[in-house]
Write a structure and sequence with these properties.
By secondary structure, this protein is α+β, with helices and mostly antiparallel strands. It is built from eleven helices and nine strands. It is rod-shaped. Bound molecules: 3,4-dihydroxyphenylalanine. 3,4-dihydroxyphenylalanine (DAH) binds next to strand 8 and strand 9.
């Protein structure tokens, strides 16, 4: 076999290597590059064709030509790998740009629950009283005539017992019309000195702009030796000032309740939308009637006490300018979210 064949084979290998280099560099994408790989390095590709031509060389020529062909194959394979890596890198950065996260965008808000304005008002009121030493207790919504009326010095013929106001239950019992029966239950279970606050729902057959058949009261009372009207006034002034703010005008005026003597009501100045003002009664109070102390077994010669019962809806309405009590019960989110 002539040296000419050896040289032409080697020259052809180098030439194909050059051409392959140009074609690989020109491949536009990964599929085109794969086509080049098959064309040059595949089983039926150009390099395989050259390998077959080795058979026409002498045994001592073959290693020389084989080595050149292998070098060319490795060069082509290396070029393809580098070109593929370029494509993959470009593809990765293209995806990264497309999937870019703008971490400066505001997040999606998670809606937050909140306490109902009446719950907030009850907690605020009870919190103020607990701060000055009152114990919190609860009594039942379902009451009997003794606790709701009799023990509170409300005789059977008192107007408060009128069927118009009280929800009586079939088979006896009633829905408490005020939280005052908790006075009886709490005093019976304790000995003076005591200071108790009792929030809860109460029920009356009554409904208009400022009345609802179910509403919320907080009862408070204090019994010890030598409790005076000035103690009542001091505690209630503190409560009103902490709840409504120091500058909110209020007044204390004489009143009547069967279970207190003397009795007083507190009013808060209500500034209406049209600019006019009027006083709105927010609580009843007084010195606990001796008959009530006797009903729970306390000696009225030894102990005196004051008590008050306040309307939570009115407290909440006057604090936030709501003028219809029913807004608290309609569960309109647009209303509730404002608190
Ligand atoms: N229980 C009364 C009512 O619901 C409010 C009240 C007045 C409570 C005077 C008291 C009090 O404890 O001393 O109208």
């Amino acid at each position: 076999m002539s040296d000419g064949e050896l040289e032409s084979l080697i020259a052809r290998a180098r030439e194909l290597g050059e051409v392959a280099g140009g074609r690989i560099a020109a491949a536009a994408d990964l599929p085109a590059l794969e086509n080049e790989r098959v064309a040059w390095l595949g089983k039926k590709g150009e390099m395989a064709g050259l390998m077959r031509r080795l058979g026409s060389l002498t045994p001592d020529q073959r290693p020389q030509a084989g080595q050149v062909i292998n070098e060319v194959k490795e060069a082509i394979s290396g070029r393809i790998d580098r070109r593929r890596a370029e494509f993959e890198k470009a593809e990765r950065s293209r995806r990264l740009v497309g999937e870019k996260l703008d971490i400066t965008l505001p997040g999606r808000p998670h809606p937050r629950g909140r306490l109902h304005p009446l719950t907030q008002a009850v907690r605020d009121i009870v919190g103020i009283l607990r701060d000055i030493g009152f114990d919190e207790v609860r009594g039942p919504d379902l009451e009997d005539e003794f606790h709701n009326f009799e023990a509170l010095n409300i005789p059977a013929d008192h107007p408060a017992r009128d069927m118009q106001d009280t929800f009586y239950l079939a088979g006896g019992g009633l829905l408490r019309t005020h939280t005052s029966p908790v006075q009886i239950r709490a005093m019976k279970g304790r000995k003076p000195p005591l200071a108790v606050v009792a929030p809860g729902r109460v029920y009356r057959c009554d409904a208009d702009q400022t009345h609802s058949p179910m509403f919320t009261q907080v009862e408070g009372f204090m019994v010890a030796e030598d409790i005076r009207m000035s103690d009542l006034k001091g505690v209630l002034e503190l409560l009103l000032q902490r709840f409504f703010g120091k500058d909110r005008p209020y007044r204390m005026r004489p009143s009547f309740f069967p279970f207190t003597e003397p009795s007083a009501e507190f009013d808060i100045l209500w500034e209406k939308d049209d600019g006019s003002t009027s006083w709105l009664e927010v609580l009843g109070s007084g010195m606990i009637h001796p008959a009530v102390l006797e009903a729970v077994g306390y000696d009225p010669q030894k102990y005196t006490g004051f008590a008050f019962g306040l309307g939570v809806e009115r407290f909440a309405m006057l604090r936030s300018g709501v003028d219809n009590i029913h807004a608290f019960y309609e569960n309109d989110q647009r209303f509730l979210r404002q608190f």
